[in-house]
């Protein structure tokens, strides 16, 4: 197993249960969209200029961080490795499929990462466990300020930071939280949430962001636009929304305990038993079982398992991670068998 693949066997710091609201909020992510002055946006760059831009950003990053980041040229790695980076939320679907030169820079514990030549020249991301928006923003803002000392950003004094997509113009800030909402799914209250988010100009997406399916009852909530709004305003809105959604989820769990306790217990304990005994599990089945166990942890029914373990397994049971762990490419049926065996082992430990 090469050094790159060994990275995927490690647990990212943002998957721990150190943040607040960790019974509902899995992680917080904050992103800045930035572009270099007097340079076409990424979708207008030819390969030669895109490569030159990569080198410019690489040299700037090294000059301010002294090689604290691993630089990964995405054209030099296998498709399976790119998929694993996507499963870890370090790169987007667009970067998986992009043919022009692009890269990822990521620090050791995966709390800071830069996508280079995605929709924008730089997508600077910060991750934190649980709901810890202040910590995530502080580290992101610090890195952004350092980069601004060595790179000249495209900036308009009226509009703010210039970005490829109009919704990001202004601060270029996207603040999001990944929430585990099993009770709201069971009680069918998600439609209310979606309508409320639209009214607030917030978006609700699946596990891996825009255009991806919902797995494990995990949802990403983020701001929809940045123009005309300050960074503190965007952050405070997300804080208010996430606190409200956490409260709704807690109340939904309480109602289920009052009205469907036996069925809820059966759902949780059956899932716990299935993970320990199943011989074949698809990704979707594994995510659903892990979701039910995570709910059981929150309700105090499965104290032997931690949020951190479940959060980690949400990532580790994904298709690319399973194949990297097996150290070979697997057909779908083989992946499902390997996934079941892996989860059985993890719940014995």
- The CA-CA distance between the termini, in Å, is 23 Å
Helix and strand run: HEHEHHEEEHEEEHHEEHHHHHH
Quote the CATH topology of the largest domain.
Creatine Kinase, Chain A, domain 2
Detail the poorly predicted runs.
none
Query: In DSSP terms, counting alpha (H) and pi (I) runs of 4 or more, how many helices?
Result: 13
How many domains? The number is 2
Name the CATH architecture of the largest domain: 2-Layer Sandwich
CATH homologous superfamily caption of the largest domain: Glutamine synthetase/guanido kinase, catalytic domain
Q: How is the largest sheet built, in terms of strand order? A: 2-3-4-5-1-8-10-9
Major sheet summary line: 8 strands, antiparallel
Total number of strands = 10
How helix-rich are the residues, as a percent range? 40-55%
Coarse structural class: alpha+beta
Tell me about this structure:
Helix content is 48%, strand content 16%. Helix 3 crosses helix 12 (319-326) and helix 10 packs antiparallel against helix 11 (307-316). The chain has helices at 3-7, 47-65, 79-87, 93-97, 133-150, 182-186, 190-199, 231-259, 261-277, 283-298, 307-316, 319-326, 332-348, and strands spanning 25-34, 69-73, 103-107, 112-116, 122-129, 155-156, 160-161, 173-180, 202-205, 218-223. With 349 residues, the protein is an alpha+beta fold. A hairpin with a 5-residue loop joins strand 4 (112-116) and strand 5. The protein folds into two domains: 3-254, Creatine Kinase, Chain A, domain 2, CATH 3.30.590.10; 260-348, no CATH class. The mean pLDDT is 91. The relative contact order is 0.14. Strands 2-3-4-5-1-8-10-9 form an eight-stranded antiparallel sheet, covered by helices on one side. It has 13 helices and ten strands.
């Amino acid at each position: 197993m090469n050094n790159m693949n060994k990275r995927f066997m490690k647990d990212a710091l943002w998957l721990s249960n150190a943040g607040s609201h960790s019974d509902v909020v899995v992680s917080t992510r904050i992103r800045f969209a930035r572009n270099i002055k007097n340079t076409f946006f990424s979708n207008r760059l030819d390969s030669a200029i895109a490569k030159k831009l990569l080198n410019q950003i690489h040299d700037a990053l090294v000059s301010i961080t002294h090689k604290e980041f691993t630089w990964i040229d995405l054209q030099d790695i296998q498709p399976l490795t790119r998929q694993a980076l996507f499963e870890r939320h370090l790169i987007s679907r667009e970067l998986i499929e992009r043919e022009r030169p692009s890269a990822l820079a990521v620090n050791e514990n995966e709390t800071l990462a830069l996508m280079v030549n995605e929709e924008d020249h730089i997508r600077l991301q910060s991750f934190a466990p649980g709901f810890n928006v202040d910590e995530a923003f502080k580290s992101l803002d610090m890195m952004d300020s350092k980069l601004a000392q060595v790179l000249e950003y495209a900036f308009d004094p009226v509009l703010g930071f210039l970005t490829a997509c109009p919704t990001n113009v202004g601060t270029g800030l996207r603040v999001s939280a990944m929430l585990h909402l099993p009770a709201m799914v069971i009680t069918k209250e998600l439609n209310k949430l979606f309508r409320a988010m639209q009214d607030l100009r917030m978006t609700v997406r699946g596990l891996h962001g825009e255009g991806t399916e919902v797995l494990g009852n995990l949802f990403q909530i983020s701001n929809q636009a940045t123009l005309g709004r300050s960074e503190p305003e965007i952050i405070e809105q997300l804080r208010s929304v996430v606190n409200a959604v956490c409260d709704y989820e807690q109340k939904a769990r309480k109602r289920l305990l009052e009205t469907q306790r036996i069925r809820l217990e059966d759902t949780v304990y059956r899932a716990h038993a299935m993970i320990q005994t199943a011989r074949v599990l698809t990704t979707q089945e594994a995510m659903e079982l892990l979701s039910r166990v995570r709910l059981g942890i929150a309700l105090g029914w499965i104290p032997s398992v931690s949020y951190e373990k479940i959060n980690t397994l949400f990532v580790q049971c994904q298709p690319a991670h399973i194949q990297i762990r097996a150290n070979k490419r697997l057909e779908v049926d083989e992946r499902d068998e390997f996934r079941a065996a892996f989860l059985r082992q993890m719940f014995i430990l």
